[in-house]
Amino acid sequence: MKKILKWLAIIIAIFLIGVVIVGISLNESKPVGNSGSQADILANKMLTAINKPAWDSTKYVNWTFKGMHTFLWDKERHFVRVRWGANEVLLHTKSVTGKAFVNGVEVSGEEANKLVWDAWGFFCNDSFWLNAPAKVFDPGTSRSIVTSEYGGEGLMVSYDSGGVTPGDSYLWQLDETGLPVAYKMWVDIIPIGGFGATWEQWTTLSTGAKIATYHDLSIIGLDMSNLKAGMSLESIGEKSDPFSSLTQ
């Protein structure tokens, strides 16, 4: 038994050393770009490609992130319904307050507070994957142009404040029209700098906005399913206002 444990410990140690070596070999330092008007021009080209005005005027969006979290987002009133497992939260995204339910029964106290903050974290992450290109001029962002390894210019967008993980940076690769193809990330949650993800399987919502519904991260794929958008709740299949209890 001792020999088995010894060999198991050796195997685990070798595996961890291998992971560290691979991580070091793949890690990229964040490039330094040139900020200024040219970077903003490139960012605006990307916004034109995704039809940002159509996204801004879209009132309601429904989607499921990676089969795990399902959202109904009232963009105009800053409400979102988040469902995962047996949990449901009606969240006000500006104040990070709301109501929480487990198996359809409202909960309170610390349990409710935890679920509300969990829902907010899911929303921040999953809505970013839904339409990060639309956030390149968000408050607290900075933009610069980086010479891309793909050829041409890449757009570096850094989030100096806001969200769950301020300090994250993304280097966008765009096609000739300005539509995003992929980006590299320098983010706290991933220890390897320059880790990449594709932006593909683009679809045009009924409101005219363009959304990438799939991201390939090499080790995992992230999909946006059940994607619906509209100017009314009825247009996305809702028969009543799920947020009425938050407005009373």
Brief overview:
With 248 residues, the protein is an alpha+beta fold.
Structure description:
The chain has 248 residues and is α+β, with helices and mostly antiparallel strands. It is 29% helix and 35% strand. It has 5 helices and 15 strands. It has helices spanning 2-26, 37-49, 52-57, 109-131, 244-247; strands at residues 34-35, 60-65, 69-74, 79-84, 87-92, 97-102, 105-107, 141-147, 153-159, 169-174, 180-186, 195-198, 200-204, 210-216, 221-230. The strands form 2 sheets. It has a 9-stranded antiparallel beta sheet with strand order 7-6-5-4-3-2-15-14-13, with helices on one face. Strands 1-8-9-10-11-12 form a 6-stranded antiparallel beta sheet, covered by helices on one side. A hairpin with a 5-residue loop joins β13 and β14. The longest helix is centred in the N-terminal third of the chain and has 25 residues, at 2-26. It is globular and about 55 Å long. Residues 5-25 have low confidence and may be disordered.
Q: Could you tell me the radius of gyration in angstroms?
A: 21 Å
Largest sheet: 9 strands, antiparallel
Low-confidence stretches: 5-25
Instruction: Tell me the strand order in the biggest sheet.
Output: 7-6-5-4-3-2-15-14-13
From the helix content, strand content and strand pairing, which structural class follows? alpha+beta
Report the mean per-residue pLDDT as an integer.
88
* Quaternary organisation: single chain
β-strand amount: 35-45%
